[in-house]
Amino acid sequence: MTQSEHQMQSEIMQQPEPMNAMSHQSTRLPLETLETPALLLDEARMNRNIARMQAQMKRLGVSFRPHVKTNKCIDVARRIMSTPTGPITVSTLKEAEYFAAHGVRDILYAVSIAPNKFAHALKLLRSGVQLTLILDSMETAQLLAAFAQTSNTRFEVMLEIDSDGHRSGLAPEAAELVPIAAYLHSAGLVVKGVMTHAGSSYDCPTLDGVRAMAEQERAAVVRAAERLREAGLPCPVVSVGSTPTALFAEQLEGVTEVRAGVFVFFDLVMAGINVCTVDELALSVLGTVIGHQAEKGWTLIDAGWMAMSRDRGTAKQAVDQGYGLVCDLDGTPLDDLILVGANQEHGIVAHRDGRLAGVTHLPVGTQLRIMPNHACATAAQFPHYHVIDSERQVQETWSRFHGW
Amino acid sequence: MTQSEHQMQSEIMQQPEPMNAMSHQSTRLPLETLETPALLLDEARMNRNIARMQAQMKRLGVSFRPHVKTNKCIDVARRIMSTPTGPITVSTLKEAEYFAAHGVRDILYAVSIAPNKFAHALKLLRSGVQLTLILDSMETAQLLAAFAQTSNTRFEVMLEIDSDGHRSGLAPEAAELVPIAAYLHSAGLVVKGVMTHAGSSYDCPTLDGVRAMAEQERAAVVRAAERLREAGLPCPVVSVGSTPTALFAEQLEGVTEVRAGVFVFFDLVMAGINVCTVDELALSVLGTVIGHQAEKGWTLIDAGWMAMSRDRGTAKQAVDQGYGLVCDLDGTPLDDLILVGANQEHGIVAHRDGRLAGVTHLPVGTQLRIMPNHACATAAQFPHYHVIDSERQVQETWSRFHGW
Q1: Which of residues B234, B264, B294 is at a domain's end?
Q2: Which of A106, A218, A238, A287 is the most exposed place for a label (fewest CB within 10 A)?
């Protein structure tokens, strides 16, 4: 066992007790009792977002393998998984460890496997997890096959397909596609199928663009599956996924499963491409006014980039939301205020248009809810979600984990 | 006690044991045994950086109150504090809690105090911590004075001065300065002095600019101190601080203490303004090659923005380093490669000039060290530092904490 694995195991072992203890707080507390910054999760909004995705999956006739990289929290995952044992998608092996420790069994690790993670993947398999790996090159295939032989293990893998040119994966027509699958098959590994992620859907300026991207994503991975089948190789699983394409795909013929994660919370980037509306954003950061620079029209709050993250995903959209959109405690945008700047623990609230006259005076101590650009990045800055109800009371506090 | 405080206390209580256990690992391990991404701390570089700051403080004849927001780790803090009990500067009360639990007593919380943190500050004071708060308005002064009266506590405070217009603080000539200090004094609080942070020094394009900013920072806070003394109010402490101004101040007449935090590690933003050189950067992220998109000149690694953070601080500098500068395992820049893009767990390595021909082939499994734009932001993404020696062996693993 490597040093990292030792640490990880000791952390995982320690997790269930304090987490369960914290998840079962019984008294409802008003937001005013929270020290800030704090991460709020609006349960009613989250539930509506989940119901929307589930209805879409049902309409499309595909199975759903939610991506838990956004939430990293069993309490959220239990609300989006089809069964208590999964399936789920993860972006790190620490996620796989954590969710496995909470009873999840069917896990797709959706980042091309690095050789220094083979031993860890093996440990998960031997602990009873049905872990599927992905890869996109003969180089990785050969390394994994060698390790599979040495460890006498029948790894299950999927081939990653590049449907939009935004990062990794084999082109659907790549010459190597069939040889890699054939090699893995002959080396005794199980090739379950093909998967892709149309990350470029986040950059589509219109919903028609998102619909077209969903079709491009579907066509790419279905074409790769056809090529494998034409070569006589089995390809039972055909997997696509991103929140925009999942929600706006018109049909998914040939696809067997969909993956998505951000849909649970949504964020300003999603609202900026009309995948959701601002009043559907379930995640926000609670901050408090700590001062003013009146002559500049600034209100200072105690939520800076450490709380919001440095993500500036709306900077390239039609409406730049700075480091976040400022809302009142009900989650309603307040007087067109945004976080125009951020230091580590200071956020600078000002009017979007930079005006200095007629700036709302928010007294020191006023609490504000700041909607984030990117839910994955903002949530990662916090150890807990404070789950709030429609009366702005904290019902429960859910833990999320951090790091690798 | 609020819900947050309950959680914080239970976390703090749990920390010392596992942290000590992890800090005293005895075997040296090669980097190749680490699962990636992992945060590396080059001990020799860190020690040189610390010695440089200490020599500068000695030359300037000021006391040093290191900012621990960058490291959030007692093992690092012990190497930069003048004594085991401090003094230190913190940016959150969780930092104060954690360092107090490790024996630190003299703590300046350098963000204007929010009313929802009064009770927590009181708890720290009552546990024996000499906690100093800051504020910059009559509004906060009145709220704190009311709380001080109710709780029968003599809070110690400093007034925050704005020396460069970049965020909070009173202008040195502000009409409210003397009235606020006089009010606090009359309300029975202890006004220890004035403090400022010239955060604009990060944006100085030349070292002459940094030197001028150091003088501007000094002059602003010394002027504020003079005004208080002229009004017959005591002002024993005059505090300045930022890594660039601390290292390049030519003289600090009238200043009693300096605060800085990034100097321990340095980062690409600091190198970009010539405050340090790239070979002084002590912090890096270890990543592993997981694939290629050869026709684009891309190498994919398993360190994306979750590992590097979304900080793009070099984007506005003369040399944009993308999401990080790619180095070999000795920490030497490699063939002018940078992280040109990042997804959550994917980093895209490519040549800085975008060339496609003659791209170095880095085989799958190759480990790389990525120098970060901003040490505070990148370190915050990790639960541990892997401390490496000059032979690239991991000597110890130090824990750092996360969140609020």
Answers
A1: B264
A2: A106
Within 67-106 of A, beta carbons closer than 8 Å to B belong to 69, 91-93
ipTM of the complex: 0.94
Whether residue A296 sits in one domain with residue A163: no
User: For residue A394, which residues of chain B lie inside 8 Å, CB to CB?
Assistant: 3
> Which whole-number Å values give the CA distances from A126 to A16, A191, A281, in the listed order?
21, 19, 40
For B306, the closest of A29, A380, A383 (CB atoms) is: A380
Q: Are residues B170 and B287 in the same domain?
A: no
Q: Residue B12 pLDDT more than 60? A: no
Is A10 contained in some domain? no
Return the residue matching tokens 């204007």: B112
Closest by Cβ to A35, choosing from B116, B140, B166 = B116
pLDDT above 90 (res A11): no
Q: Which residue has the tokens 């990794």?
A: A168
Compute the distance between CA of residue B5 and CA of residue B127 in angstroms, rounded to an integer.
Answer: 14
Residue of chain A minimizing CA distance to B22:
A7
DSSP β-ladder status, A237-240 and A190-196: parallel
Would you tell me which residues 180-219 of chain A have a C-beta closer than 8 angstroms to some C-beta of chain B? 199
Please, is A232 exposed, middle or buried when counting C-beta atoms within 10 Å of its C-beta (0-12, 13-18, 19+)?
exposed
pTM: 0.94
Higher pLDDT: A11 or A40? It is A40
* Rg, C-alpha atoms of chain B: 22
Residues 265 through 324 of chain B touching chain A, CB cutoff 8 Å: 288-293, 296, 300, 302, 305-307, 309-312
Residue A28 falls within a domain, yes or no? no
The Cα–Cα gap between A206 and B155 comes to 55
User: Scanning every residue of chain B, which has its alpha carbon at the shortest distance from the alpha carbon of A2?
Assistant: B33
Predicted pLDDT at A309: 98
Rounded to whole angstroms, how far apart are CA atoms B195 and A388? 38
Number of domains observed in the structure of chain A: 2
Chosen domain end from A264, A290, A312 = A264
Positive or negative, the CA dihedral A66, A69, A74, A76 is negative
Place B358 in a pLDDT band, splitting at 50, 70 and 90.
confident
